[in-house]
Amino acid sequence: MEPYRLPGYPAVLGDLAYGCALALFVLLQRMALKLRAEEADTWWASNGRDAVNGLAVVTLSAAIWLQGVAPWLAIFFGGTLTLALSGLHSLLQRTHATEPWKPVVVAAAILGAPLVLAPRPVAETAAELLRAAFGT
Prior knowledge:
The protein is mainly alpha-helical. It has one domain (11-134). Helices cover 79% and strands 0% of the residues. It has five helices and no strands. α1 (11-38) packs antiparallel against α2 and α1 (11-38) runs antiparallel to α4. It is elongated.
């Protein structure tokens, strides 16, 4: 399976979807932190955080797929971005940063830029690395 295919629509639509997914991610992380604060009082808050993070993976993966990246690789990128950005957000929140979402937005822009600017080389390189690592 090819790691990249040229979308049948203007690339700006995939870029816009990706930008919206990253913005939604930041909003979802704020919701996840509120749920973390409620964990001691409510039994469902932990499951709610899992659902929020799952939604973040799905939206980022779908937006990356719209960039032209193969579905299996889009899921890999979506999960990796969600893990990295939510970890950063959680770390900043624990250090009592006044607005932890601002550095997360910057990190999301930096980590997301290669997929917007050069999705084909990024997808092909990642696919080669994953195939080398897992022998497929």
